[in-house]
Amino acid sequence: MYIARILEKEGVPFQTVEPSPGRINLVARLEGTKAKRPFLLNAHLDVVPAEREKWRHNPFGAVVEDGYLYGRGTLDMKQMAAMALGILVTLKREGTKPPRDLIVAFVADEEAGCGMGSAYLVARNPDWVDSEFGLTEGGGFVLPILGKTFVTVCVAEKGVLWVRLHASGKPGHASVPTPESATSLLVRTLGSLLNLPLPLALTPPMRAFFTTLGKKGQSPWQARAFIRAMLRTKGLERRLLPLTLKKGPDSHALAAMLRNTIALTRLEAGVKENVIPSSARADLDCRLLPGETSGPFLETLKACIPEEDREYVRFEVLQDQGASASPAESPLYRAIGKTIEHYLPESGPIPFLTPGFTDAHHYRKIGMTMYGFIPMEASSGTEFVRLIHGHDERISLKNVDFGATVLMALTKRILFEV
Asked: What are 65-73's contacts with CB under 8 Å, separation 24+?
């Protein structure tokens, strides 16, 4: 393993565990005086697949062009792995002994639900990773809004409910179609599901987000007043709905932060063009806001099955992990704010709810204050979100240098001052 070879050469102790073949987790530790609890940097090493033919360069070729490094995982999240490894080696060479241990976890399974990665470590080897504070992915990108530039600090994330919709029907020759076919049954239910009205809700993390905008946004007084008005619970839908209905990736992202969502991600049915299949299925990726539970939401989904079809259509839960959050006010948040203000004087931190799911969920289970924060100077939130899991994922070399510098400064601040 590449990382292991570097750590062995530098004399940094580490441990590995392989819950299943090819799923190796490596946890390294730079020991301090242990006057305070450790600080954790986390990076997952697994990535999602890439469609080679739709990329400008080989997605696994690490090609540098026009100041960008192209490759699957450059933003999600091998940049953090590289930065954390560099910080670990640098501090080891400096020979300093901070009040806290520095732990760096390179985990294997985040893209598949964390079961063989952070979730495994927390359940089986919690002493390897147990820390007071920790950082992983989900924030750190620049967000220009209302006349001021903010840097996101991900303090919370939505829950994940992955479900599979199964339909069973009558097979036959495609020249004689029937409304009782599996595909017809599936499509009828999906039509109801994907048109399900999902109400807006202002959760504590998003309330903190809007409060920060209202206090710090150097915007016309009308904009600040509008934000403050949105924080009143009465008339929330009327105030927020216009923002979420605007076209563009920013409005889609905002809508996902303010409501539960349902995404159709996979359809499977049939073996031949002229054969009506006896079964069909669809996978749905549902994301739930903090405070929501999967039980009532699943019942809402089931209610979308037409009554006459319920004998032939059923749901299977593939994954169910609730939302998680850390306090938006903490010594870690203040340390991030001071570091941001030093390197980006015109910016400030803003608490953020990510619609996605990260390893932070599992670390929070053992009482860690865990945020998503990878410093990203030159990428706006829109570009960042568009490229993750997309074609031609890439990171600028400027961002690599900037991120490594800022993350080193922040790590030293937390190890020695917080």
From this structure: 67/396, 67/397, 67/398, 68/394, 68/395, 68/396, 68/397, 69/394, 69/395, 69/396, 69/397, 69/400, 70/392, 70/393, 70/394, 71/393, 71/394, 72/47, 72/48, 72/393, 73/45, 73/47, 73/393
Looking at the DSSP assignment, which residues form a beta bridge with residue 267? 282
The whole-model pTM stands at: 0.86
Every domain range in the chain assigned CATH 3.40.630.10? 2-142+324-416
Neighbour count for residue 172 (Cβ, 10 Å): 15
Residue 266 Ramachandran class (φ > 0 left, ψ -120 to 50 alpha, else beta) = beta
Where does the pLDDT of residue 241 fall: very low under 50, low under 70, confident under 90, or very high at 90 and above?
low
For CATH 3.30.70.360, list the domain ranges present in the chain. Answer: 159-198+260-321
Per CATH, the number for 159-198+260-321 is 3.30.70.360
Q: What is the mean pLDDT of residues 240-260?
A: 67
Q: Where does 231-293 have alpha helices with state H?
A: 236-245, 249-258
Which long-range contacts link 216-222 to residues 24+ away (Cβ below 8 Å)? 216/148, 216/150, 216/348, 216/350, 217/145, 217/146, 217/147, 217/148, 218/146, 218/147, 218/148, 219/146, 219/147, 219/148, 220/147
According to CATH, the superfamily of the domain at 2-142+324-416 is Zn peptidases (3.40.630.10)
Task: Tell me the pLDDT tens digit for each residue of 349-384.
Answer: 999 899 988 999 999 999 999 999 999 875 544 566
Kindly give the interhelix angle for 397-416 and 79-94, rounded to the nearest 10 degrees: 50
Helix (H, G, I), strand (E, B) or coil at 169: coil
Residue 235, by phi and psi: left (phi above 0), alpha (psi -120 to 50) or beta? left
Closest listed residue to residue 411, CA positions, set 130, 14, 96, 117 = 96
What are the structure tokens assigned to 152, written together? 């996101």
SS3 state at 126: helix
